[in-house]
Write a structure and sequence with these properties.
It is globular and about 70 Å long. The longest helix has 38 residues. α11 packs antiparallel against α12. The protein has 24 helices and no strands. The protein has 528 residues and is mainly α.
Length: 528
């Protein structure tokens, strides 16, 4: 129920971002940054929660998550049409960040708890746990589809508080077990040794990007109007934040390098996060651009329904098809590649449904199966490695996937307008701010308010300028999906190499903490 509440909020936010463009004139990049905040905060919730959960207990973290969910509603519902764009952006960004902080705190409880309760079948039960995520997205999308034209965006968004209140009551009085690592008496330093400097460096790099971009450029610079938070000095401070995390891990683990496999899994999960959740945060908007906004919502609901059903089938896949978790991940990558390329070329409803069906098969098992692999292969890490990996995935979405796809959509739309001879139309309808991201070339973006007005008109009612904007955004959306397919290609290469590794070393199998390992007498799986 707790993860369902997160899914409801996520889907409603996706469904109302067009309303934000109409009311505040946001560019695709700005919407991507707000969407990215819906994942960045998750990192802090799940990493901090994962580090302390075995010390303070699951119950206190759940209370914290509940309070964060309520606070996020208060902040996110504050903007109004009379505000300056930057003020509205900051409130929506901050409220969305707090929402994701609550979600991360919840998953710091949920993932290790389920892994502890079902040690012999983690892949199956973690997939069932995460089936509530697409179910929540289905409910949220149905809400925006049913009442989107009649209710304000604030009324729609406030509905996620209903499942929030329900999970708050359901958790009252519950008793929780301890993780294998905690029950074995391992210290935090021992739990973190297999993460080590290598694993921490992946999280540290993303923390650097978050501090530099999200905290500095998007929050502090906006609040203070100071160039300090976009200059070199703040960049060095951000580097220190990322390096500080790596140094902390190095000290508590006595400078353990970490296990190479966990490092590779962290890299793969960073790519996975940008693919699955970064694409999810844009797929309804992109499909709604290529077809119609209503069909975009229906396709989103269809994809979530496929995910919901298939996440109950992982045991059958392992048992009947004899696929290991790594083989499942490799197969999913191939489906995701095919689905994104087909979606980019879809021109009709049937083709779009077919493409989304294939893509949904691909993305269904990624996230929970990756968590299961960490639980299977690194039991000594307790909740910590699982939480850090989840945080890496979410930070990747917040700093790379969400904003990156928004920037790509702005860029490819503008490029199509220039190449098609609509340069003057672009200049006449450009946004207040250009789009720039991660050092890529700064591009002129279309004004979100004017673009949404054009999209809501029938084709015969549009002016020539409005039709040029709509056609260009469709072309930009298609090109964005084709470039998005690069991510699962990279994942497929990683999983194929891991398949070869496990084949050469006797096959994939789950490991257990022995009494000798618990007492520090025997090391776990060999690292560097």
């Amino acid at each position: 129920m707790a993860i369902l509440a997160a899914g409801v909020g996520f889907a409603i936010r996706n469904g109302i971002n067009a309303a934000w463009s109409q009311e505040f004139g946001f560019t695709n990049l700005q919407k991507g940054l707000i969407g990215g905040a819906g994942f960045s905060g998750f990192c802090f919730g799940i990493i901090i929660g994962g580090v302390i959960v075995d010390r303070i207990g699951y119950g206190k973290l759940i209370i914290s998550a509940f309070l964060f969910h309520v606070l996020s509603a208060v902040v996110t519902l504050m903007p109004n049409g009379g505000m300056e764009q930057q003020t509205a952006f900051l409130l929506l960004f901050t409220g969305t960040f707090i929402f994701s902080l609550a979600n991360g705190t919840l998953e710091a409880v949920a993932n290790p708890l389920v892994a502890t309760l079902f040690p012999n079948n983690r892949t199956h039960y973690l997939n069932i746990l995460h089936a509530s995520w697409p179910l929540g997205m289905i409910l949220g999308a149905l809400i925006t589809l049913a009442v989107g034209n009649q209710w304000s965006w604030k009324a729609q968004l406030g509905l996620y508080l209903l499942p929030t209140v329900i999970y708050g009551f359901m958790f009252m009085g519950q008793k929780f077990p301890r993780s294998d690592a905690s029950a074995s008496g391992l210290s935090l330093g021992e739990m973190m040794k297999e993460v080590g400097i290598l694993g921490a460096s992946v999280a540290g790099f993303l923390l650097y990007l978050f501090t530099r971009d999200a905290v500095g450029e998007n929050i502090l610079a906006g609040l203070t109007n100071s160039d300090f938070f976009t200059g070199d000095s703040w960049n060095y401070i951000s580097m220190a934040v990322g390096a500080g995390f790596v140094l902390w891990v190095a000290v508590i683990t006595k400078f353990a390098i970490g296990h190479w496999l966990l490092f590779v899994l962290f890299i793969a999960h960073a790519i996975l996060g940008s693919l699955e959740l970064g694409t999810d945060s844009w797929i309804e908007n992109i499909n709604g651009t290529i077809l119609t906004p209503e069909l975009g919502k229906i396709l989103f609901i269809f994809a979530c329904a496929i995910m919901f059903g298939l996440r109950f089938c992982s045991h059958w896949i392992e048992d009947k098809l004899k696929l290991s978790p790594i083989a499942i991940l490799f197969s999913c990558s191939l489906f995701a590649i095919a689905g994104l390329y087909l979606a980019a070329g879809a021109t009709g409803v049937t083709a779009a449904f077919g493409a989304m069906f294939i893509y949904s098969i691909g993305k269904t098992f990624f996230w929970p199966t990756m968590l299961a692999v960490v639980g299977d292969r690194f039991p000594r890490t307790g909740a910590v490695a699982m939480s850090i990996m989840g945080g890496i995935g979410m930070l990747s979405v917040g700093q790379l996937g969400g904003p990156g796809l928004g920037y790509a959509k702005d860029r490819f739309t503008a490029e199509h307008m220039e190449e098609s001879g609509y340069g003057e139309v672009l200049q006449a309808n450009k946004a207040e701010k250009p789009s720039s991201w991660m050092g890529f070339a700064e591009v002129t973006a279309l004004d979100g308010k004017k673009l949404e007005e054009a999209k809501h008109l029938k084709k015969e009612d549009r002016t020539a300028e409005q039709q040029a904007m709509v056609e260009s955004e469709i072309a930009g959306s298609r090109k964005t999906l084709r470039h998005d397919a690069i991510l699962p290609i990279g994942m497929a290469v990683i999983y194929l190499l891991l398949l070869i590794y496990f084949k050469a070393t006797g096959g994939y199998k789950a490991l257990r903490i022995t009494p000798e390992e618990a007492s520090g007498g025997v090391k776990g799986p060999a690292g560097f």
